[in-house]
Specification:
CATH topology of the largest domain: Creatine Kinase, Chain A, domain 2
Low-confidence stretches: none
Structural class: alpha+beta
Bound molecules: adenosine-5'-diphosphate, magnesium ion
Strand content: 5-15%
Shape: globular
CATH superfamily of the largest domain: Glutamine synthetase/guanido kinase, catalytic domain
Distance between the termini: 28 Å
Mean pLDDT: 91
CATH architecture of the largest domain: 2-Layer Sandwich
């Protein structure tokens, strides 16, 4: 059954092999390998075969599918029909329509690139990611650029970073004599966390509808204290949802593999089998889209926000990352021979150096208003970047650096390139869940990305940073007279310089934050704190030298992120204000009146001095809180007006962090207290307990 549907809607390599003339197939394959632009003649043949196949699958339309900097995907559907002149139509799709599309760039964020370049943008086919049919439409994965060639999307820098890493990794592999390898790609498996709640509850909460998270909500008596949700038995409604999601994904060739319950009530996770990074990124976008659509069909809403509810865990997206040669070798798989081990250690060092040198960029690429609620809370990695290698590997690096035997029974010290590494069991390397960047046996798991964000950002940063380490290593080793001793020394130097980034303890602890500060590691708590690092000269140098970005592209992304942060906070603050004025204040005022009426009625019937402490005291407390709430909401409204007067995005962002967010927290405190005092029937929204346990 799975075999029949898996990839059934994908114009895959197998389908192309079957449907394209041999020369066309080979030419396309070669173009993809060389990363060249497709010849229009070949494109025409491919387009025709693709159209015929798509029509058989029920498609009437096609769309260039792209990933603008909104973080979600965009599509514009055109039908295949073409008039014949005699009142009839035929279905047509040209090579030009396949390889290039036009799109109005002016409605997508461009961060200033639009001012200097034309409003028009174009989309260009990424033939390394297969086309597929979904909802009667042929989807063609594309990159999105301005006519000046500036990247306006999340795919272009990712593809460029993969190329940069490929180039530097091949230099290193040549030094180790791996002449059979012709390309190196990065592989990614992104584990996706999400919440499922009932649609009925969702629609009763303007905060969820407008912002994707609850802005108010008193602590429920039961959250995740009992640890009884993680990997527990899955409820029937959720199971039906997961089954349908899996099937939809399988049809599109997305290898969805694991589905389980997560820590918080109504929180779940989906993990696919890893694939090449750009494909994994496209797939992750499909996963998010399909989960949201399928949830609706089952009367539920899928929340992808990083922190939909306070008091329980938020959601992330663990980005598992590795490097693989076209000959099928995982470069982070420790080997059997001294030679393989030396190569493994060198690639490992490249990542250690990259994470240390570009800890600021790793923090930047996961920064968002949503993720600010998650990083640094005691459930997700701290905002400090560090790396976990596992005890064995850490011990090995330590003994290499110190020049002492690894094992007390051994007499000689470990010589890189001469000795075999002691075997270390993979299982023991995956157990530090508090580390933001953990080596898990043959790959790295970056745990900071937020659940709603594209994984393009984290991956182009990792790829480019590692490419830079490898470039430096290759420059040094290519000059070496004695390769093995230079390699040994390089590894020692690298460990010495970068071991401050290695940490095996509890990343959630206070002591670690103090220790990290002593080590000089960055602790960038909020989005406005870290975004300026995006345009730090060293980072501009990194991206421009590896041709991942031009300087103006970096500035545009910096601005989009900064504006995006302010926009989110502004929407949240306005939503709060509206909820307070239009729902909460009227509700609590009415409830206070009921209490007063009851107190008066008691006195009228039972006489002065009648026992009515509850009504009076509760009414007094509610009344006082109501005044506080009214005042605080006034401060928030004032602050929002003040923000509008500020011109620069960084001033606005800092103001959000220092004023607006603080007032919002205070406001919430008052509302949550009021919620716990008010008659359930009078409170305008379903409470946390009801929402979190709403799915049966
Ligand atoms: P766990 O996190 O529970 O240890 P796994 O190690 O099986 O689970 O895998 C988690 C994710 O990492 C999956 O999406 C898996 O496909 C992915 N993964 C496994 N190997 C690699 C690799 N070499 N490169 C990238 N991702 C990988
Ligand atoms: Mg994992």
């Amino acid at each position: 059954m799975v075999n029949d549907i898996f990839g059934s809607m994908v114009f895959s390599d197998a389908v192309m092999k079957q449907r394209l003339p041999k020369e066309t197939y080979n030419a396309l394959h070669q173009t993809v390998l060389d990363g060249r632009r497709l010849d229009i003649g070949i494109a025409h043949v491919v387009a025709n075969a693709m159209k015929d196949w798509a029509i058989e699958k029920g498609a009437t339309h096609f769309t260039h599918w792209f990933q603008p900097m909104t973080g979600i995907t965009a599509e514009k559907h055109d039908s295949f029909i073409s008039p014949t002149g005699d009142g009839r139509v035929i279905m047509e799709f040209s090579g030009k329509e396949l390889i290039q599309g036009e799109s109005d760039a002016s409605s997508f964020p461009s961060g200033g690139l639009r001012a200097t370049f034309e409003a028009r943008g174009y989309t260009a086919w990424d033939p390394t990611s297969y086309a597929f049919v979904r909802n009667d439409t042929l989807f063609i994965p594309t990159a999105f650029c301005s006519y000046g060639g500036q990247a306006l999307d999340k795919k272009t820098p990712l593809l460029r970073s993969m190329e940069a890493l490929n180039k530097q990794a091949l230099r290193i592999l040549r030094l180790f004599g791996n002449d059979d390898v012709t390309s190196v790609r990065t592989t990614v498996g992104a584990e996706q966390e999400y919440f499922l709640i009932s649609q009925e509850m969702f629609e009763k909460r303007p905060d969820l509808v407008f912002t994707g998270r609850t802005l108010f909500g008193a602590r429920p008596p039961k959250g995740q204290q009992l640890d009884d949700h993680y990997a527990s038995s899955i409820k029937p409604t959720v199971l039906a949802f997961m089954k349908e999601v899996d099937e939809e994904l399988w049809k599109l060739g997305v290898p969805a593999k694991t589905e389980h319950n997560e820590a918080a009530p109504s929180q779940h996770e989906l993990a696919p089998i890893f694939s090449t990074t750009n494909i994994a990124t496209d797939h992750n976008q499909l996963i998010m889209d399909i989960m949201q659509k399928v949830a609706r069909k089952h009367g539920m809403v899928c929340l992808l926000h990083e922190k939909p509810f306070d008091f329980v865990n938020g959601s992330g997206k663990h980005n598992n990352w590795s490097m693989q040669t076209n000959t099928g070798v995982n470069l982070f798989e420790p080997g059997e021979t001294p030679h393989e081990n030396a190569q493994f250690l060198l690639f490992l060092c490249a990542v250690i150096q990259a994470v240390d040198d570009y800890q600021d960029m790793l923090r930047v690429c996961v920064a968002s208003a949503g993720n600010d609620h998650r990083l640094g809370a005691n459930e997700a990695p701290p905002a400090v970047i560090s790396m976990f290698l596992g005890d064995e590997l850490a011990e090995i690096l330590d003994s290499i650096e110190q020049g002492r035997p690894y094992d007390a029974r051994e007499k000689s010290t470990l010589k890189v390139g001469v000795h075999v590494l002691p075997r270390f069991p993979r299982d023991t390397t995956d157990r530090n869940r508090t580390s933001p960047f953990a080596f898990t046996g043959n790959k790295f798991e970056f745990r900071m990305p937020g659940s709603s964000a594209s994984i393009s950002g984290p991956n182009f940063v990792i790829n480019t940073a590692v490419a830079e380490s490898l470039r430096q290593f290759a420059d040094r080793l290519e000059q070496a007279e004695d390769f093995n001793s230079e390699l040994h020394q390089l590894i020692i130097d690298c460990i010495r310089r970068h071991k401050r980034i290695l940490f095996s303890g509890n990343g959630y602890s206070e002591e670690w934050l103090e220790e990290a500060e002593r080590r000089g590691l960055l602790n960038l708590k909020t989005t406005p704190d870290c975004l300026p690092y995006y345009i730090a000269p060293k980072n501009i140098k990194l991206f421009t030298e590896h041709k991942v970005f031009t300087e103006s592209e970096i500035h545009s992304r910096y601005e989009i992120k900064m504006e995006g942060y302010c926009k989110v906070i502004r929407i949240e603050a306005h939503t709060m204000s509206q909820m307070v004025h239009r729902d909460i204040l009227p509700a609590v005022s009415a409830y206070a009146k009921k209490l007063c009426d009851a107190a008066a009625a008691k006195e009228a019937v039972l006489g002065i001095g009648a026992e009515n402490a509850f009504e009076k005291e509760q009414a007094a407390e509610i009344s006082a809180l109501t005044t506080t709430l009214y005042r605080r909401c006034g401060y928030l409204d004032e602050a929002l007006k003040e923000m509008e007067k500020m011109e620069s995005p960084i001033d606005q962002a800092n103001f959000c962090r220092d004023s607006i967010v603080i007032i919002m927290d205070k406001l919430r405190e008052t509302v949550d207290r009021l919620e716990s005092l008010t008659d359930r029937a009078d409170w305008p929204y379903p409470d946390y307990g009801t929402i979190l346990f709403s799915v049966k």
